[in-house]
Amino acid sequence: MARKQCEFQLIRYVPDPVKNEFVNIGVLLRASGGEQSDLRLTRDWGRVRCLDPDADTQMLEALEIEIGHRLRDEAGELRPGVIQPVLARLEDTLSNGLQITESKAYLAESFVAGLEELMRLYVDPPRRERSQRRSGRGALVTAMRMRFEEAGVWTLMRKQIAAADYTKRGDPLRIDCGYRFNGTVRMFQAVSLDADADAVKALAFSAPELRKGVERLEEAKLQLTAIVEPIREPAGDELDEDRIARYDYARETMEDYDIRMLTSSDLPRVAETARRELRA
User: Fold this and answer.
1) Phi, psi of 7 (to 5 degrees)
2) Mean pLDDT by 10-residue block, N- to C-terminus, for the chain (280 residues)?
3) Interhelix angle for 80-92 vs 57-73, to 10°?
4) How far apart are CA 238 and CA 232, in angstroms?
5) Of 233, 239, 221, 224, whose CA–CA distance to 265 is shortest?
6) Which residues contact residue 216 at a Cβ distance below 8 angstroms, ignoring those fewer than 6 apart?
7) What values do phi and psi take at 20, rounded to 5?
8) What pLDDT does 239 receive?
9) Distance between CA 158 and CA 93 in Å, rounded?
10) How big is the chain by its Cα radius of gyration, in Å?
11) E-strand stretches of 196-259
12) Of the candidates 164, 195, 154, which has an alpha carbon nearest to the alpha carbon of residue 64?
């Protein structure tokens, strides 16, 4: 099978240009004919936070969404003169915080396969198995994104939804992702009961105003879902009374505020529902 001729550039995070320490965080891949172009950033920000604990990863994820929309809007028109504003937007971000490498030629088996291979080679190389699993809200967010990507709907969903758009100015809450299907807006928020039990109260506090705002502005009903860790992990950890109490409190609180509570084990089913609804 003839390989597809492409060009790629690496996106690097460089918090201190003097030290010139960097982490590869993404790949910009373009078909040489200009008919396809895509930006993919890492889903695991652990190496970035090791280099810069104050890194604004939410901003970086928002940047990926913005650039991705531009590339899709300009599909089929990505001549050199058209792609330059996209590159300039990347270069302007975080002042000197991001760097883009020189373009290199690449022969890909297919565009999608090539993007995945470049991510494995330069950005997310396989890690040796670690005894301590990744945990907390970051693990739940990563699991959500992975399942929605596998279902082919991640790019069709809204991300980092500002609650202030529906509640009151200054509300700091951002909902991880969501989409609209017919007369219902479905929103999903990762809530780690192991790492931050107070997040339950924060989500519950905003839920009533968020629901009213969706009904007022979207003329739709809101289905708000919290994704939490399973109460019993696959490793078979013994359940202690404190953990059971946290889960009982979370379940009762969310029921009181009409928030659906699911675990990360339910994500394949959630993603399949999104695939049916968004690809219908």
Assistant:
1) -130, 145
2) 84 81 89 80 83 80 76 52 56 66 89 88 70 66 88 88 91 92 94 82 92 94 93 57 83 92 93 88
3) 170
4) 8
5) 233
6) 166
7) 60, 30
8) 59
9) 21
10) 20
11) 221-228
12) 154
Judge if pTM exceeds 0.70.
no
Beta strand segments in 166-275, E: 174-181, 184-190, 221-228, 260-263
3-state helix, strand, coil in the chain (%, to 5): 45, 25, 35
How are beta strands 260-263 and 221-228 bridged, if at all?
Answer: parallel
Token pair 């060009």 in the structure block, residue: 7
The 3-class secondary structure across 27-88, one letter per residue, is EEEEECCCCCEEEEECCCCHHHHHHCCCCCHHHHHHHHHHHHHHHHHCCCCCCHHHHHHHHH
Q: In what order do the strands lie in the sheet with 221-228?
A: 158-162, 174-181, 184-190, 221-228, 260-263
Note the pLDDT of residue 212. Answer: 95
DSSP-derived secondary structure letter, 168: -
| Rounded Cα distance, 92 and 89, in Å | 5
Structure tokens at 1: 């099978």
Tokens of 267: 């994500």
- Alpha-helix residue ranges (DSSP H) falling in 52-181: 57-73, 80-92, 111-118, 137-150
Long-range contact pairs involving 211-219 (C-beta distance under 8 Å, separation at least 24) = 211/258, 212/166, 213/165, 213/166, 213/167, 214/166, 214/185, 216/166, 217/165, 217/166, 218/180, 218/185, 219/183
Q: Which amino acid is at 57?
A: T
Report DSSP state, residue 15.
S
